[in-house]
Amino acid sequence: MRVKGRFGLVVTGGAGAMAILAAGCSGGGKGELASGESGTPVTITPANGTAQVKPDGTIEVKASRGKLEKVTVQGDKGAAVTGRLAADRKSWRSARTLAPGASYTVTAQGRDDGKTSTVTSAFTTLKPSKTLSITDVTPNLKGEKVGVGMPIILRFNRPVADKAAVERVLKVTPDKPVEGAWRWIGSDQVIYRTKTYWQPHQTVRFQADLAGVNAGGGVYGAKDVQQTLTIGAAQITTGSISGHHMTVKRDGRKLRTIPFSAGNGQTREFTTTSGVHLLMEKGSPVTMISPGRKEGDPGYYKTVVNYAVRFSNSGEYVHSAPWSVGSQGSANVSHGCLNVSPADASWFYRIMQRGDVLKLTGSDREVEWDNGMSYWQLPFEKWKRGSALS
């Protein structure tokens, strides 16, 4: 028997066919119509039962007659999949990628001539042999407040072939908007820096809609990542290496001026770098060993210091140095660090936030932009050129 129902569904067969037809024609009822069948007024792509759907594919729902009323997507992995309904309500498209190796069910309701039909499609996505994951987001310490210069640093589990595709799904949303840009450092690390410092005392939200993104070479993003940053007070320290003093301000208010003794300048290694640094980390005690030298070599040293705050990768710290108090504020005698008194070192250590700004002038050695977190050394226009989307 061959019968054509109200919604154009063509059904062939016996008793089972009649049951489907009755469901489709019942007055005001909802018909459960399989996706993709001939004549169905609402169709879903991928069709019901499809396997190995590419995660970066698109879900599409179309109404051949009438209009779409509602479309929902349920999956067993990853973030919810939302979409956009066309202005004429005749079509709907998903707005993001799908999780790899996942099962999805799409339910769509269409309305035509006062009657509603419901169509479902269940399908599975491809499970790739290689996936891309974010292994670290810095800053990442629970409850930490960071300084106004703090970058966002992402590290991936493998090299990224299609950097542009990945960068497009990285979103940074501060409470107080400011321009910023990503810059790739090699193939497995990308860093976000703002054009001007973050406004203090706010929340910044990072979102990576990575699940299902085609990262190139058959690699798909494994899962989404979210992180919230808390920007603390604007703590900015300015110091003169030749003047032997630095001044610490918080939110524009002077807190303290600290005398110090900087690097003696006898070699490049023993010259404290000028430029815009960010405070990176702290430790107490920290053991400092002369780089590139072993015990017995000229210039070798091994010293344990307290209240040490790092500001470069070339071994520069602000730290307690009770042995050089007599030179602090008047002469530079250190191996490159800023030696300060135990009392000043303890105070500076306590108030330090990762990402606080330390601006130093007065030496002939400029800190490199990629030495530690000295990213502010690079003009923003040059910084942006490291984006895959520039």
From TrEMBL:
This is L,D-TPase catalytic domain-containing protein. Residues 235-361 form the L,D-TPase catalytic domain. PROSITE patterns: LD_TPASE (PS52029), PROKAR_LIPOPROTEIN (PS51257). The keyword Membrane does not apply. One of its GO terms (cellular component) is extracellular region. Pathway: Cell wall biogenesis; peptidoglycan biosynthesis. GO terms for molecular function: acyltransferase activity; peptidoglycan L,D-transpeptidase activity. The active site is at 319 (proton donor/acceptor), 337 (nucleophile). Keywords: Acyltransferase, Cell shape, Cell wall biogenesis/degradation, Peptidoglycan synthesis, Transferase. The keyword Plastid does not apply. GO terms for biological process: cell wall organization; peptidoglycan-protein cross-linking; regulation of cell shape. Transmembrane segments: none annotated.
